[in-house]
Amino acid sequence: MPTYIADTVYIYQSELKLISEYVLQNPETETGGDLFGNWTHQSCPVAQVAIGPGPHYDADRAHFYQDVEFLKEQGRYWSKKHALHHIGQWHSHHKLGLEEPSTHDDATIYNAIHKYGLNEFLLIIATLQKEVRLKAFIYRSNNKRYGLRWSVLESKNPYKPDEYYDVEAPACIDVEVDRKTIELALNDEASWLNTEMGRKWLRSVHESLKSQCNNVSMYMDAKKQIIIACEKHRRTFEFVIPEQYPQYQSYWRDIEAKSIFTIPHHG
Ligand SMILES: [Zn+2]
Q: What's the whole-model pTM score?
């Protein structure tokens, strides 16, 4: 087992375009697909081939479920023809509005890693703002995930013929290059999360939102803010708790949410 941390994902420009085009073509529901390739000596993922959803995929405004038979078939094809392996998955979060993996994503991927005895797994999250934004994350068997920087390969993809890309180039691809390490701040003495009362309050907020709305997911972003995303009346709202809470107040990202949800008092 290597002790260094992979920090880069290698991918062809053509595959970024393919993913972006699927996202642009599906503005009303989430979409997704899978990634085939290999790993470098430093355990960095090389995503040589991206595929979209199979004919029997399932998707709604918050989740994407790949067509399992299609994925197996594709897995056999790429492995037999080109020795490319299933190294990860991509899906959109443009309806969910999260640039990070959801708690549902984390749980699903950690389960798969342990179930299939994998060392790591790649996840690309696509969001649609003014343009398609793509962020890459690597999950490791020690139950940690890290943000990856992009290295876009310049040559044409040798694994796919030109006809494969029967898609128009998207208007713009804004590829995020930040490296981020996402770990809960529980070791940070000063964090409100490190107090019994803070954790109890967070649990009650989370429970309260789960009882009032759909598709609740909670995560920590790069600024170490806790974000709780939730959906009501077919709209997504976010409750944000800053790292310096309670010095800085928690707030709603959509002003309308204030009148819709009730949140328990802190302390
Ligand atoms: Zn997701």
A: 0.63
CA separation for the pair 42, 8 (Å, rounded) = 9
State phi, psi for 121 to the nearest 5 degrees.
-150, 140
User: b or e along 38-55 (b: 16 or more beta carbons within 10 Å of the residue's beta carbon)?
Assistant: eeeeebbbbbbbbbbbbe
The DSSP letter of residue 248 is: S
247: CA distance to ligand 1 center in Å? 31
- The type of residue at 211 is S
User: For residue 171, what pLDDT is reported?
Assistant: 39
pLDDT digits 0-9 by tens, 226-252: 888 888 888 888 898 888 887 788 888
Cα 183–chain centre separation: 15
Q: Which two tokens stand for residue 12?
A: 């062809």
C-alpha of residue 33 to centroid of ligand 1, in Å: 12
